[in-house]
Amino acid sequence: MDRKGSAVWNGTLKEGKGTVSTESGALKDIAYSFASRFENGGNSNPEELIGAAHAGCFSMALSAGLGGAGYTAGSIATTSTVSLEPVDGGFGITRIHLDCEASVPGIEGAQFEEIAQATKLGCPVSKLFNVPITLTAKLV
């Protein structure tokens, strides 16, 4: 399977503007800029898109892991915090933190934690990163 995302950028780094889109049309011409990436401006940025992809992948993978152990989650809510910081004269993603809350009838906390930690390492998007990934997983 191949999936496509695209971006268009116009202008200089600081004054320019860009848009990102997805092949499916779920995102179409979503604005991003220097300010939205480095100064908390109001538009999108690549890191929040990475975070959304990571949170979505982790949630689906956790559902699969729970299913393999005989459990069905009522809900899984995950937030991925992607940290962009100055590194070696530029910027880089330095770490990612996943914060997950799940409702899983009948599971014990220790088993849930074990499955969640295995999922953190095994989800396809996690495998892309060469930075520390931390996880807080909580049953609700």
Tertiary shape: elongated
- At CATH's second level, what is the architecture of the largest domain? 2-Layer Sandwich
Structural class: alpha+beta
Would you identify the CATH H-level superfamily of the largest domain? K homology (KH) domain
Largest sheet: 3 strands, antiparallel
Strand order within the widest sheet? 1-2-3
Predict the CATH topology of the largest domain.
GMP Synthetase, Chain A, domain 3
Q: What is the H/E order?
A: EEEHHEEHE
Give the tally of structural domains. 2
Helices, by number, come to: 3
**The CATH top-level class label of the largest domain:** Alpha Beta
Helix content: 25-40%
Question: Beta-strand percentage?
Answer: 35-45%
Count every beta strand, where a strand is a DSSP E run of 2 or more residues: 6
Mind explaining what this structure looks like?
With 140 residues, this protein is an alpha+beta fold. It folds into two domains: 5-38, no CATH class; 46-139, GMP Synthetase, Chain A, domain 3. Helix content is 30%, strand content 36%. A three-stranded antiparallel beta sheet has the order 1-2-3. A hairpin with a 7-residue loop joins strand 2 and strand 3 (30-33). The chain starts with a strand and ends with a strand. The relative contact order is 0.14. The mean pLDDT is 95.
Provide a quick synopsis of the model.
It is built from three helices and six strands; from the N terminus they run βββααββαβ. It has helices at residues 34-38, 46-68, 109-122, and strands spanning 5-10, 17-22, 30-33, 75-87, 90-103, 133-139.
